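User: Let's play a game. I give you a shape written as tokens, and you guess the letters that built it. Ready? Here's round one.
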């Protein structure tokens, strides 16, 4: 099973035999991978009909729900890790989603496209909104409403009382080790409540 670059990093941060909640789980690829390779259990939350059906076909536990409505169906501390991969930028109320993640889980993990990548700046300087493999939409049809950079996320996490425990800034699936904020296409963070 081939995983996206951010999902590889996320899977590396998740121990075996733990309970996972994957928010905006898509077709359930991450949950199926963690179930099969690390004996993890858990649920996915997804709103899209076709993605929910794909989860069911892959024997992934899925609940069809809108994340914007919160996670009231889950008790405090019910999961070891709550994942929100490539979905943070599409949330209307980012703060509420992050609070809910650390309410129902001991750890949260988010990944998002880095709007601070150098190619985005070049596009903006040229008078156009960026379109890249990590942000593949035109300005008029994008689901992304809150584009951010790694520094933006770090400042928000601090303001919300979240302690970042791990960070990976990825360029072509590998850690960016120099000029990381300009070279990374995807940011992945692991955090917990202080």
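Assistant: Ready! My guess for every position:
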């Amino acid at each position: 099973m081939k995983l996206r670059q951010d999902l590889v990093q996320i899977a590396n941060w998740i121990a075996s035999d733990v309970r996972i909640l994957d928010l905006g789980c898509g077709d359930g690829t991450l949950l199926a991978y963690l179930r099969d390779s690390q004996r993890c259990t858990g649920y996915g939350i997804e709103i899209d009909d076709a993605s929910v059906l794909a989860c069911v076909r892959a024997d992934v536990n899925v609940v069809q729900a809108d994340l914007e409505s919160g996670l009231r169906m889950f008790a405090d501390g019910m999961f070891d890790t709550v994942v929100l991969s490539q979905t943070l930028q599409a949330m209307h109320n980012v703060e509420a989603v992050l609070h809910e993640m650390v309410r129902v889980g001991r750890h949260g993990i988010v990944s998002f496209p880095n709007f601070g990548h150098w190619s985005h700046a070049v596009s903006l300087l040229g008078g156009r909104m960026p379109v890249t493999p990590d942000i593949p939409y035109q300005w008029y049809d994008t689901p992304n409403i809150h584009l951010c950079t790694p520094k933006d996320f770090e400042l928000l996490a601090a303001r919300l009382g979240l302690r970042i425990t791990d960070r990976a800034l990825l360029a072509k699936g590998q850690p960016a080790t120099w000029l990381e904020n300009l070279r990374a296409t995807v940011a992945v963070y692991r955090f917990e409540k202080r």
